[in-house]
Design brief:
By secondary structure, the protein is α+β, with helices and mostly antiparallel strands. The chain is 34% helix and 23% strand. It has 3 helices and 4 strands; from the N terminus they run βαββαβα. The chain has a 4-stranded antiparallel beta sheet. A hairpin with a 2-residue loop joins strand 2 and strand 3. The longest helix is centred in the first third of the chain and has 16 residues.
Length: 101
């Protein structure tokens, strides 16, 4: 399952830029990978883990702007199609990065 976060945050004032940077760093620190500018994705194991990530996002949301969350299955995500451009990533961003202990 993947959680996709879409956000559009204001960056006019210095405080808004700090808030944007703080939220973006939180996403990266939480294991999200950038798909496009202001679109980040994270793989989670199940619905319970997704709910935990949702709670974490709610606790760390910025004070202004818009943040949307979407959960999709891996099958649904695999059906996404690049219409223009190329997918470029040096990050292993699929089930192969999961480690079972």
């Amino acid at each position: 399952m993947r959680i996709i976060v879409f956000f559009d945050l204001p960056t006019v004032t210095a405080e808004e830029r700090r808030s944007y940077t703080k939220f973006r760093k939180f996403l990266i620190k939480s294991g999200f990978v950038m798909l496009q500018e202001s679109v980040y994705s994270k793989i989670v194991l199940n619905q319970t883990a997704a709910q935990a990530v949702y709670g974490s996002l709610r606790r760390n949301k910025p004070p202004a702007g818009m943040v949307q969350i979407l959960a999709v299955t891996e099958k649904q995500f695999e059906k996404s199609e690049i219409l223009v451009g190329e997918y470029q990533s040096e990050i292993l961003n699929n089930d192969e990065r999961l480690v079972f202990l």
